[in-house]
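Practice problem 4.
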């Protein structure tokens, strides 16, 4: 993929239209300032291949921890100073082994990382020592159980109660559930996720072997698990303290509320699959909500990819129309607006100190585009 250094700085974006919320915040004149910052990585090469997908913030948001699959280290990056502080060594094999490949990473209480791989799930301290191991596939759970065709697609360890929560799905894409896991007592409780069932219509299979699903995510934010997927704007959130599941639907004035297209689903070649996937992404795509602690609001990006100007096999970044939805702390929609200065789907992003940070690969160095919202 080609890398593009951003040349704009302190650009002001003006949003058309607006409304007034119950808190009397006026969104009609929202502006953004945008700047770009670069992390000083010294002589080291940071792991940027997956776009920081194997990373998580410390609870105070001073650090981002990024797992490097090339040298199997955990990169500790100071976001206040914009510098790589150290690389923490982890093992692939043995009693402290993580396995060769990882699927997700969560920072737990500032001094541990919860790592999920294809063969191992465990909690590790920052010295790379495994302090707890979870054999989820081999465990016989009470109350509910995993079916033969089901697996944990996404796992998090809640930062408050230490319990495990998993997004459970089958490979036909016809059934999804939230799993609440009490590993100590070997109890699994499953909650059906009705809006995820639409994902099966966008499941692509290559030569009856490799299965590609639209992105699904589960974000642990302040005692709530926010479950989302690429296909629909609808959200499901689980309140950990109340042990209750809630559903939120939205009516957008700028985009469709969900994908509507019908697509081919079985393919004999990567080229055919990629062409159909890009067509599917030309409909609206919804990303994971993320929280702004300073302003007590959620933000959510959505985007529509544009038809490529070159052939389908081009390695150039695919251009996109990008939108931002602003939600209150209870996930009620406050406002939505286009972001014409962002011309591709946002990579890893989060809010720090009231600013939206978006990862940008700048000539193989870690950079961030930062959006400051002004009302």
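Answer key:
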């Amino acid at each position: 993929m080609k890398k593009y250094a951003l040349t704009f700085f302190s650009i002001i974006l003006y949003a058309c239209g607006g409304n007034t919320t119950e808190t009397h915040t006026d969104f009609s004149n929202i502006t953004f300032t945008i700047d770009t910052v670069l992390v000083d990585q010294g002589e080291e090469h940071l792991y940027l291949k997956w776009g920081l997908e194997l990373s998580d913030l410390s609870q105070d948001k001073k650090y981002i921890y990024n797992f490097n699959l090339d040298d199997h280290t955990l990169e500790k990056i100071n976001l206040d100073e914009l510098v790589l502080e150290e690389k923490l060594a982890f093992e692939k094999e043995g009693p402290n082994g993580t396995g060769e490949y990882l699927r997700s990473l969560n920072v737990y209480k500032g001094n541990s990382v919860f790592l999920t791989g294809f063969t191992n799930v465990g909690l590790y301290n920052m010295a790379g020592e495994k302090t707890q191991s979870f054999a989820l596939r081999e465990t016989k759970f009470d109350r509910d159980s995993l079916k033969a065709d089901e697996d944990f697609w996404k796992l998090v360890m809640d930062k408050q109660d230490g319990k495990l929560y998993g997004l459970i799905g089958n490979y036909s894409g016809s059934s999804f559930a939230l799993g609440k896991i009490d590993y100590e007592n070997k109890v699994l409780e499953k909650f059906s996720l009705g809006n995820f069932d639409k994902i099966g219509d966008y499941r692509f299979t290559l030569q009856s072997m490799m299965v590609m699903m639209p992105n699904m995510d589960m974000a642990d934010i302040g005692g709530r698990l926010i479950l989302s997927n690429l296909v629909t704007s609808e959200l499901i959130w689980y309140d950990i303290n109340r042990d209750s599941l809630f559903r939120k639907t939205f009516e957008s004035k700028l985009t469709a509320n969900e994908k509507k297209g019908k697509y081919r689903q079985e393919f004999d070649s990567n080229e055919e699959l990629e062409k159909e996937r890009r067509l599917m992404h030309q409909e609206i795509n919804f990303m994971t909500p993320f929280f702004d602690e300073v302003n007590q609001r959620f933000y959510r990006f959505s985007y529509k990819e544009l038809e490529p100007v070159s052939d389908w096999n081009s390695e150039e970044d695919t251009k996109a129309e990008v939108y931002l939805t602003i939600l209150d702390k209870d996930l009620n929609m406050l406002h939505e607006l286009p972001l014409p200065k962002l011309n591709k789907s946002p990579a890893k992003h989060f809010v720090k100190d009231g600013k939206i940070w978006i990862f940008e690969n700048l000539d193989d160095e870690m950079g961030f585009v930062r959006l400051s919202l002004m009302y």
